[in-house]
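User: Can you recover a sequence for this backbone? Please restate the input before giving your answer.

Assistant: Of course. Working from this structure:
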């Protein structure tokens, strides 16, 4: 069993030329990770391959954001998102992720590709505040209502701005 990792305040910042690339099977188990993924995650290739992609999930990420991501890609649509990841040593790194389903000739999902790049600092500031609010709500209402309550916060923000999620992510 994986030992719990304690998050730290140490941030790793992606270089402008970095692209983190990974591929998973339909259940989210990593089947490929490029050298930049290995570098930022702090895990070896052997530690990553066959492991659930959530091995790098940072506890500051609201559960509702992962539900949105999974719902989107399982409906065979690409998803863009700002994500705070956690490395093996507890440090963190922000990414702007594009996750795309890999479909076979019959349209069945064979897995997922994810390409992440350095996010804009202004976008990170925006989503940090949003995610903090969503996460506080998730913790306040408890596990059974967490995702629904947190999703409502995002939906209300989108309604207030008159934007879809995709429009918001690409605009910030």
């Amino acid at each position: 069993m994986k030992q719990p990792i304690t998050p730290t305040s140490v941030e790793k910042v992606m270089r402008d030329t970095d692209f983190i690339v990974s591929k998973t099977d339909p259940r989210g188990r990593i089947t490929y990770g490029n050298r930049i993924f290995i570098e930022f995650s702090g895990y070896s290739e052997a530690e990553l391959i066959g492991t659930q992609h959530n091995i790098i999930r940072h506890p500051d990420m609201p559960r509702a954001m992962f539900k949105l991501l999974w719902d989107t890609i399982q409906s065979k649509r690409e998803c863009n998102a700002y994500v705070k990841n956690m490395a093996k040593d507890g440090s963190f790194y922000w990414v702007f992720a594009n996750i795309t389903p890999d479909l076979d000739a019959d349209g069945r999902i064979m897995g997922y590709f994810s390409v992440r790049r350095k996010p804009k600092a202004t976008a990170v500031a925006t989503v940090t505040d949003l995610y903090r609010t969503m996460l506080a709500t998730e913790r306040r209402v408890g596990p059974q209502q967490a995702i629904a309550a947190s999703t409502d916060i995002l939906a209300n923000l989108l309604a207030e701005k008159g934007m879809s999620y995709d429009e918001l992510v690409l605009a910030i």
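That completes the design. The chain has one domain: 19-171.
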